[in-house]
């Protein structure tokens, strides 16, 4: 019988889903992704996660619960490091434990550890470990992984900016973790709302990774967190290419990483440019009307600056 693996549509699903989905499918596994976030998933997540967790982690709980009776396994890797020499948020390391403690009667969890600080050989071992849940042939597992990796790289290429930003009337860079930017329930469709005003949107995923790294490496301090490197590198790229008219950072309440990264990003913008900057911090109580008002005001201010450039402060 074909086995089913559940992947919660939350956290780094938004970055790695082409890789994970293709890998499992190549091994003949049926992949079930939880539904896009909705009120019920959010409420279940809030009800079942520890109070101190950030909203994306609470949401992850809700997505796992929604898969509970539909799959044979749930894939919750323990992510320690996804780039050599860097770390990601500690919440990702403890995610499988958090889920097992908070949620009962779950199917078996595939909770292998992914740690790029270890050797390439151990990465191959990790891939074999996951694959062996479904297939005993090591060659076939590695073949599935290489196909998945190619699909993932192609997918990243599709995101890249193809047009010249200077040809666009106005551009806004939207910063944030992938699950802040692409979970449209969590962020209340901010990206679409801004696009509807005629403004072109740029996200870190659309900037060439080589450019981001080059800019991040030029930063005065070493950036040890993957999220920080990506967001600071994207900000510096936007400033140095003079390609954007505004920068919005989407964060969520109780994000420990952002409490530091936002401060760095804001300092970089203020020291190196006069680009307007706005921070939107969302939580489960954020009202859509308030978010809409702030977006409208920010967009209006960017448009008005064309006429009154010398009179309007970039920073409120
Ligand atoms: S980076 Fe922030 S939002 Fe993401 S899991 Fe960690 S604390 Fe939560």
TrEMBL record:
Pfam families: DUF2229. This is Acyl-CoA dehydratase activase-related protein. Residues 4-207 form the DUF2229 domain. It comes from the Bacteria. The lineage of its organism: Bacteria, Bacillati, Bacillota, Clostridia, Eubacteriales.
């Amino acid at each position: 019988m074909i086995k089913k693996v559940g992947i919660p549509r939350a956290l780094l699903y938004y970055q790695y889903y082409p890789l994970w989905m293709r890998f499992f499918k190549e091994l003949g596994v049926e992949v079930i992704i939880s539904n896009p976030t909705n009120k019920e998933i959010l409420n279940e997540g809030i009800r079942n996660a520890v109070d101190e967790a950030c909203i994306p982690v609470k949401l992850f709980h809700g997505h796992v619960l929604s898969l509970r009776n539909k799959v044979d396994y749930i894939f919750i890797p323990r992510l320690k490091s996804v780039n050599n020499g860097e770390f990601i948020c500690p919440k990702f390391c403890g995610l499988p434990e958090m889920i097992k403690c908070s949620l009962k009667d779950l199917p078996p969890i595939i909770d292998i550890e992914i740690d790029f600080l270890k050797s390439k050989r151990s990465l191959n071992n990790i891939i074999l470990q996951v694959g062996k849940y479904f297939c005993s042939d090591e060659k076939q597992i590695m073949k599935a992984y290489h196909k998945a990796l190619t699909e993932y790289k192609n997918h990243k290429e599709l995101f890249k900016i193809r047009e010249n930003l200077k040809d666009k009337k106005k551009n806004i860079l939207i910063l944030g973790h992938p699950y802040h930017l692409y979970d449209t329930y969590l962020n209340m469709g901010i990206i679409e709302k801004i696009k509807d005003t005629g403004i072109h949107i740029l996200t870190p995923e659309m900037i060439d990774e080589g450019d981001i790294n080059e800019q991040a490496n030029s930063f005065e301090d070493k950036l040890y967190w993957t999220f920080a490197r990506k967001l600071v590198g994207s900000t510096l790229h936007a400033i140095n290419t003079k390609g954007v008219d505004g920068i919005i950072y989407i964060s969520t309440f109780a994000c420990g990483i952002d409490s530091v990264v936002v401060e760095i990003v804001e300092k970089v913008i203020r020291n190196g440019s006069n680009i307007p900057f706005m921070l939107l911090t969302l939580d489960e109580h954020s009202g859509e009307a308030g978010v809409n008002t702030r977006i409208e005001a920010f967009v209006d201010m960017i448009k008005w600056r064309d006429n009154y450039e010398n009179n309007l402060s970039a920073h409120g």
